[in-house]
Each structure stands twice: as structure tokens, then as C-alpha cells.
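Re: [ENG-882] Designed sequences occasionally contain unexpected residues at chain ends

Forwarding the minimal case from QA. C-alpha cells:
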């Protein structure tokens, strides 16, 4: 039994140094599909929706930072809420692995623009706000430059009040839950010498 545990431990340690929870290249672009659930509270409750995001990322040995845009739509009855955001996302590599999968932790700060269309009130309105949160994900390398990325996050969001057909709609702060999956493509660019030394 001890021999089996030792072999498993050695196998994990052998894989871990080669796993990278980010692109092997200094620069990368990423596109992902999203499933989101917005806990709007009150009569609206939790409203699901779909969307997408795109980002560019700069990678360093143990962390990386990305910037990009996200969009999702959420329908309930005759109402439809669209959320457009511009975000900054730092990531921290955990330095462990589960076979070919490499995990990371991520934070996210978002400038939000919400647009609400209501058939009930026969009107449209919009407002701005912010979101902050974090999550985790896994990277699976498909090739040297292409990775499959899957992850999830929880965001605390706030939007200002909206006016629809002379009716003021109050948006209290609410939580959003996101599951995403997509591909990242790396580019060599001008990486630092420190990065080139550890790149596999």
C-alpha cells in the first residue's frame, strides 16, 4: 500500500512542473461561452442566461493578467436584461496539477452597463455599475499554443436605478454566478528572459 501511494505521489510530482495554468506564451487571446445565473431577488428571483467573453492576456511565470469584454442576456416573462461589461482579471497559478489539468485562481473587476427591455412596462432603460468577484478554473493543453479553459466565478454586482416609461426601476446589489468554457491561443511575442527560462 505504501508503495502504491509513493508511486502516485511521484507521478503527481513528475507532472506538476510541466503543467501550466496559463498559456506557455507571453501573450494570448481567449474566447469563451458563458452560462450565468443572476440572483435579482424579489419577484424576479434567479434568472439564467447565456453570453460570451473575449480577452487578451499577458503571462508571467506564476501569474497573469487579462483584460476584455463580456456580454450576457437574461429573460424573465416579458423582461430582458442585457449585461455588458469591461473587465480586468488577474490569475494566480497554484503550482499543482491533476493529471494534464492545471488549476488557477482568478479575481475579476468589472465596469457594467445594464440594459432592460420590458414588454410589461413597454419601455427601455439602462444604467451603469460595477462588479467584483473571483473564482477558479482549469487549463487543459490541446497543443503548445492552444489551451482549453473551463472555470466558474461568483460576482457581487450593482447597477443604478433605471427609468422605463416614466417608471423608476430599482436595482439592489445582486450576485451573479458564471460557468465558462473556451479556448486560448498563445503568441510568442517578446517575453522576458525569466519567462523563457521556465517555459516548457
Amino acid at each position: 500500500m505504501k508503495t502504491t501511494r509513493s508511486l502516485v505521489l511521484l507521478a503527481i510530482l513528475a507532472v506538476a512542473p510541466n503543467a501550466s495554468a496559463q498559456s506557455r506564451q507571453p501573450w494570448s487571446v481567449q474566447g469563451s461561452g458563458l452560462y450565468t445565473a443572476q440572483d435579482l431577488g424579489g419577484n424576479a428571483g434567479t434568472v439564467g442566461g447565456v453570453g460570451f467573453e473575449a480577452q487578451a492576456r499577458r503571462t508571467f511565470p506564476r501569474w497573469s493578467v487579462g483584460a476584455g469584454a463580456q456580454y450576457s442576456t437574461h429573460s424573465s416573462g416579458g423582461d430582458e436584461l442585457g449585461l455588458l461589461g469591461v473587465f480586468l482579471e488577474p490569475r494566480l497559478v497554484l503550482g499543482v496539477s491533476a493529471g494534464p489539468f492545471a488549476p488557477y485562481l482568478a479575481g475579476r473587476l468589472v465596469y457594467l452597463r445594464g440594459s432592460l427591455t420590458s414588454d410589461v412596462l413597454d419601455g427601455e432603460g439602462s444604467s451603469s455599475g460595477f462588479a467584483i468577484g473571483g473564482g477558479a478554473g482549469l487549463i487543459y493543453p490541446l497543443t503548445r499554443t492552444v489551451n482549453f479553459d473551463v472555470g466558474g466565478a461568483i460576482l457581487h454586482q450593482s447597477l443604478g436605478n433605471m427609468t422605463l416609461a416614466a417608471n423608476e426601476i430599482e436595482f439592489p446589489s445582486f450576485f451573479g454566478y458564471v460557468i465558462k468554457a473556451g479556448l486560448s491561443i498563445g503568441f510568442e511575442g517578446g517575453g522576458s528572459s525569466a519567462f523563457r527560462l521556465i517555459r516548457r
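QA comment: On inspection the terminal residues look reasonable. The chain has a mean pLDDT of 81. Proposing we downgrade this to a documentation issue.
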